[in-house]
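Fold it.
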Amino acid sequence: MSDTITKDASAPAGDNSPKAAPAKAKPERVASLWSDAVRDLRRNPLFIIGSVLVLALIVISIVPQWFTDGSPFDNGACDLSHSLERPSAEHWFGYDVQGCDNYTRTIWGARNSIIVGILTTATVTLVGALLGLWAGWKGGIIDSILSRFTEIFFSIPLLLGGMLIMSVMEKGNAYTVSLVMAVLGWPQIFRIMRASVLSNKNNDYVMAARALGAGAGRITFRHILPNAIAPVIVVAAISLGVYIGAEAALSYLGIGVQSPEISWGLMISDAQVRFLAAPHVLLFPAAVLSVTVLAFIMLGDAVRDALDPKLR
């Protein structure tokens, strides 16, 4: 009782309402290219659809046994008595010329295509971006030598150069195809990175860092690289689907991924001679290949829209 009286006595007279707590000011959102890009990507249906498709394809390529009961590499997986049988409830994609389940081969064929796309893109981006960063920052004789060197590779088309190099190799697989396309593809990233560095290295924030005594390494990797990498990410995301299509073209010509490995391009090549008699053998792997390339291009287009300030 005494505690209650004391509290009431200490309260100001005539003030029967509780004091409202002071409202906390909401922290202001710091605007930046990357934060705005992430916000735009979350609202972009093109990015959402592309991301779901790409994620599904990556999971299929890692654990294809989750999506099909058998493996095309098992003994007895193919039976000539089922050759060119049409799709049914038990076998959704039917059988190919060799009597192999077309659905199983299509699922397992995703692995090589995804490996080629991701490995080639990662190698091209790493090599091209580092060399472009070095050439753009140093300038002078280093820039001239690297620029002339890249012009040699630019004179060789990706697919034609891949055909020439792969034709002299004994046997192709996903890793050799990735290496060949990376050797031919890095100059594109180099040029984009070099141009982006040249447009950023004389900005005010770089001059301020130099005036404060920052070293060349700190300026390059802490100031120039984060502001110059956006165009490289856009081109790399779009090129991923291009590399998957190029691998399928090389495998279709018989100089890419080769049997007993499985590739969608190789499946299309094997099915072309029987297309009129059994169109399902070609249509299903071709459709999956088209969806895969489209998914990566959709993802790249969404990233381009988010990171290019001119499109806002």
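The CA atoms of residues 29 and 238 lie 30 Å apart.
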